[in-house]
Amino acid sequence: MGRAERDHVAKYWDGFAHPHQRPPAFANNGKPWTTWLILGGRGAGKTRAGAEWVRAIAQADGAARIALIGETAHDAREVMVEGVSGLLAVHEDCARPEWISSRGRVEWPSGAVAQCFSADDPDSLRGPQFSAAWCDELAKWRHAEATFDMLQFGLRLGVRPRQVITTTPRPLSLIKRLIADPATALSRAGTAANAWHLAPAFLETIVKRYQGTQLGRQELLGEVVEERADALWSRALIESCRVEAAPACARIVVAVDPPASATKDSAACGLVAAGRAGDLVYVLADETVSGLSPAGWARKAIALWRRYQADCLVVEVNQGGDMVRAVIRAEDASVPVTPVRAYRGKYLRAEPVAALYEQGRVKHAGTFEALEDEMCDFGPDGLSAGRSPDRLDAMVWAVSALTFARAEPRIRAL
Fold first, then answer.
1. pTM of the predicted protein model
2. What distance in Å separates the CA atoms of residue 253 and residue 257, rounded to the nearest whole number?
3. CB–CB of 35/163 below 8 Å?
4. CA distances for 90 relative to 55, 66, 77, 122, angstroms
5. What are phi and psi of 40, to 5 degrees?
6. Quick one: 208 exposed, middle or buried, by C-beta within 10 A (0-12, 13-18, 19+)?
7. pLDDT, mean over the chain
């Protein structure tokens, strides 16, 4: 065979696709799906499935407008478009679309267009509209909820806009909601399902090392593991500490874990309110914010302080302490600020607070899904996704201030 014939055979997707890589006919409710969620282990062929689905849409519908959303702009380009299983690679040479890297656009001869976006910038999805979307490694997105929400508002073209999500799963609230959504079609596959296309040495080494472990269940089998075995908190522990509401508290604080840099695109700012009644501490609110300027998160912190009539803002000052105090003072100079400085790592700071939970001395007045996800995913090496545990940090500072620091009580009725 010549090069063109070999290329045609290698790209003959209908002949080589695994069952989990083929679009399902129906969703959980037996009707046509809106979201196709592909949960798979490392190397299970998730990226190829997403790229092939986009290729089929673009070649069949010249009016298609498709969003390609990766964890970062680099991932969208290097994995989703230019990767070995990306959009350019799955086309035959004669049908390959044009990749305009300077604009982050893929343009097909049919007229279809795909645009790359970064999950680090949810607001970039405001304005554009799409008939389809491919989201890759959603479980790793730093701003998963905000980015996913913005995408849903943009999926408004055509008769039935659809989206495909390819990811190695993590026990995020968003992932669990999508699995339970009646409009979702779910496909699962472990690494072994695609073993023919993986290096034997990889399978022998990685499977031997991680088989039977919690990390192996997640990364090799593609299972949604509810909590880490080495996490400081468990779901059962948190449930045992949950109450419907907190009583009148003698002291209330709002803890602020500011992002490391003073830019709008920096990490989240942890904002957690907690109060103390007798010997018990109650977590009252988690209003952690992302994507705000220093002035923006300072206003949010002060608003939370006012709402609960808190005694003070407990603010970590390791990262630019003078800047943090100046930002809060500029918004409202009357707000009392108690600076705290971290001299130990996050895990060591969190250990005594986790012990208070085990003793039943900390309660959650309600449900705080995002915070509780971080708590059950926080081990000696931090969060499994490598992100900063901003919500958890703020909670630890708030509970520590109410438990280990001395202060005169003032009654606050909730």
1. 0.62
2. 13
3. yes
4. 8, 17, 15, 28
5. -145, 160
6. exposed
7. 87
